[in-house]
Design brief:
2 domains; Rossmann fold; alpha/beta; 338 residues; globular; Dihydrodipicolinate Reductase, domain 2; 14 helices; single chain
């Protein structure tokens, strides 16, 4: 790989991929040479300098200096990025599922500084770089986060009195939820993102299998339950957490009842947020859009620019950090138990 990579291949040209291609065209030092798609004949808005569209992975990857993976899923995405890495390309991905579940493959690229993945957590809101960068100067005590906008939308609708099934149908109609919404409403999407944050923060070798048993979603929430919480000045939120029980780090994704004045409630509906607590920095709140084509593409483009400049991607700690001696659990009741 030469000292000035410019040729960019994008794997996937859906909502995020198309937005990324358009934004990349703003930068004269970059040339998006190819995009891997299922159907090259399908109409797409790819800006004024559209790349070559192909369904052939070999054609898409050939000669690329930077490969951007936006196809989602786990195994195929991992296999394609393995081919790109073997060819010497720098890597960019928004794929939290593959990063979380196949750390055996993706982790060495992260350790080598070859992978940018800001867009994998909270889209364009910069939490990956914050946890891997400035916040590392403070010993972590805990982090608690809202990491799934679909769940936030569904809770908001149920707070207005709409049954879960009706709220979900409306979310699917608006494109906020997939036809199979399980990854969102069962907490898996949030857990994928929590796994990445926990690795960056304190547990570099955390396995997905250690996280998955501690994940619960929002299917059991009802408008009546949420109305009862409101009468007690509480709000339900699906919270992803890393904290210490005094002896070990713990991770969990679960619905919690939070006071109305809690920081994770005050950020408002439709927004994701990360609440980080460190011994030196105190409490830091980062909030913003956690989804959307343009917002996610913004973080993808930032990672590509870093790759072109040969700046290393975010790094995990060299070893696991000892847990704080004192518990830092969020301290509010769970709304759903096994």
């Amino acid at each position: 790989m030469n000292n000035s990579p410019r040729r960019v291949a994008v794997l996937g040209a859906g909502t995020v991929g198309a937005a990324a291609i358009r934004l990349l065209q703003r930068h004269a030092q970059l040339e998006v040479v190819a995009a891997l798609v299922r159907d090259p004949a399908a109409p797409r808005d790819l800006g004024e300098r559209p790349p070559r569209l192909t369904a052939d992975p070999d054609e898409a990857l050939e000669g690329a200096d930077v490969v951007v993976e936006l196809i989602g899923g786990v195994e195929r995405a991992t296999a394609l990025m393995q081919r790109a890495a073997a060819a010497g390309a720098r890597l960019v991905s928004a794929n939290k599922a593959a990063l979380a579940e196949r750390w055996d493959v993706w982790g060495p690229w992260v350790a080598a500084g070859r992978l940018g993945f800001e867009a994998a957590v909270m889209a364009g809101t910069p939490v990956v770089s914050a946890v891997a960068g400035p916040l590392r100067g403070s010993r972590p005590l805990a982090l608690h986060a809202l990491l799934n906008g679909t769940c936030g939308y569904l809770i908001e609708r149920m707070e207005a009195g709409e049954p879960f099934a009706d709220a979900l149908a409306e979310a699917q109609r608006r494109g906020y939820a997939e036809a199979d919404p399980g990854l969102d409403v069962d907490g898996v999407d949030a857990a994928h993102k929590l796994t990445l944050l926990a690795r960056l923060c304190a547990l570099p070798e955390l396995r997905w299998e250690q996280v998955r048993p501690h994940v619960r979603g929002i299917r059991r929430l009802t408008p009546e339950w949420l109305a009862d919480l409101a009468r007690r000045d509480l709000r339900a939120r699906l919270v992803a957490s890393l904290w210490s029980d005094g002896e070990a780090w713990r991770v969990a994704v679960r619905p919690l009842a939070l006071p109305c004045d809690h920081a994770l409630v005050r950020v408002g509906s439709g927004r994701n947020a990360l609440l980080f607590r460190g011994d030196a920095v105190g409490e830091v709140l980062i909030a913003g859009a956690g989804a959307g084509g343009e917002a996610t593409a913004s973080a993808v483009v930032a990672d590509v620019l870093d790759a072109v400049a040969l700046r290393p991607g975010p790094a995990v700690p060299p070893r696991a950090l000892a847990p704080p001696a004192r518990s830092s659990a969020i301290g509010f009741p769970e709304l759903e138990r096994p």
